[in-house]
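Appendix B.2, paired examples.
Example (i):
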Amino acid sequence: MSQSSSRGPGSSPRQVPQIPVVVLAGFLGSGKTTLLNHLLHRSGGSRIGAVVNDFGAIEIDAMAVAGALGDSTVSLGNGCLCCAVDVEELDRYLDRLADPATGIDVIVIEASGLAEPQELVRMVLASENPRVVYGGLVEVVDAAEFARTRQLHPEIDRHLAIADLVVVNKLDRAEDGAGVLSLVRSLSDRAAVVPATYGRIDPDFLFDCRPSEERVGQLSFDDLHRHDEPGEEYTDHAGHLHTGYDSVSFVSDVPMDPRRLMEFLDGRAEGLYRIKGYVDFGPYDPRNRYAVHAVGRFLRFCPEPWPPGEAARLTQLVLIGSGIDVPALTKELDACRSEKDAPHADEHGMWGVLRYVRQTEADEPEVSYDYDYDADRV
């Protein structure tokens, strides 16, 4: 871990330990939260703090990691971090996590799927907190959606060019995984390119993801600092991904009807790219809530026990898309609620949902960190 010296009046030089701040980025649904949760549960005793940024007003990603991190999480919702806060505000969050009393070894900034990685790197480099140091950019790629994502958003190539580590995730779902890996390597500049499924990478990569002294990918540190001159404020976000997307935040204290919700999901509009959150099916499964995860046409439900002491059982969903009709989607979701005076659940009501339930993590094979990548590019 890096160190910097600090000298006070009449004092001898002393070393101030610095905590690396790693930026974790990637397009909508690429698997950033899944990767972070994997690292949290397999960190080998190292303590990870996180700044979690959700695009929607409901902080779904923060909920997904809060149980593992406890008070080591800072949650920022309803906007992209690169535009929602300034450097001074980010410094306050970093100062809290970097307090020696927390015992944190590395801080991860999990960006929203529409954030601009280059701006986040600039913000960390501009930090005046002596206890933190920029620790590199990890870019997560959805192998199954990569061709379509690049077609819609060519700027993804620029994100890969400044990454220090690229995780090519969801290779189990890609039609040509080897081709995606080869293409990503050609677009990355000296970065390690690591294949993965379910975000499973060796936790050591998080600690070893360090940029060179003078360059971040194809950009020099001077380039990254160019908007951080005294008295100069960078406010042009017109080219950012999030300017072309809208979000719908939906909350219901009435359980959802599984048949109605599946009709909505099966008929969702093409522009509705990302859906995430938790669904309460009430009497259809009173023991579990269902985490829902949709990217493009892919859909998955994961039942999980309700958190102990949950005050209210709510359905909480965030929908993100381009060219979507927010009022119309809200109305359609409202229509998916169960009737208040409906009879108890029937035995076939959940069949449509259960088609999209995958095996649990506990049933999946144990991860093996036997990667086939170009060691010269690490």
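Example (ii):
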Amino acid sequence: MQPQSQHGFHPVFCTIVPPHVLDKLSQSDNPDLAGPARRTLESDAARRTRRQMATVVTVPAAPATEGKASDKPHRTLYDCRHRTRLPGTKVRAEGQEPTKDASVNRAYAGLGATFELLLKAYGRRSIDGHGLPLIGSVHYDEKYNNAFFDGEQMVFGDGDGEIFLDFTVAIDVIAHELAHGLTQHTANLSYYGQSGALNESVSDVFGSLVKQYSLGQSADQADWLIGAGLLTPRVQGVALRSMKAPGTAYDDDVLGKDPQPASMEDYVHTSQDNGGVHVNSGIPNRAFYLLATALGGNAWERAGQLWFDVLTGGQLAVDADFESFARLTVAAARSRFGEGDEAEAVLKAWSEVGVPTV
């Protein structure tokens, strides 16, 4: 595999709630559950098709801003007012006081927290490295059960109130979606198969790191859940995904059981969800968790730095598989830290999830 061309990127349509979850929900006998899920699936499918048609030709990467990029974020929040036309009505600009709308304020804070982690931990100014403005739209559609990044901005639904709550309540969901933009502007991982699962996993990793950074949590203190707080009390589950224990996030009569594998021996071969990108991401997710907790301290410092090094290093192919990604993390550990605890911990983490590094 060849490293990606740096001349452009293909924006993709990425959602936080996997299609298989919404599909299961759409089959419920309860119309209050099935209806919103079905409409969300249809909306996502239509928008995904439009995105694919719009990116048949490679889109040039955003040019660098003249002069030094700002150390401050440039956020703009919009209110869709339960319609689907983006971005909606402008309701809060950078530096303005909080509004009376909690969703707007949570999205504003989440975008800021993601910007801050990238800057303070890795010296990167916004997702493109050049201070790219961050745009978010809330109250998208009616009872929309998802949040997504469409290659240009973040969009958040309110949820149906039956299964899902407002998608701005979880800061890691906000950061997850924004991290798809980070991947788009760096390694540009193809959104299919193992490279797609890596794309999803990288977003989970940085989503979790933003959450941990904002809460001041060490790797041992973190819950390593993605989307904790999104599910209503009626759901038998704690989150959308667990990086610590993939496959255990939920086990519910309506949603079904979390299908994520924790190691390669349970890898799921499927043509659905772009080759299982939201399912098999559990394997590299757990590898990162194992590494971060083995090293201890703040996960964004050493473990996160290695993932960031690989993502931005220019050697990761757009169609990278788990094994090639793992090898690059080992090389990154040796390059940054030498033949020490870090490199040994990386090797052990990947070995535990069944991904070879030699």
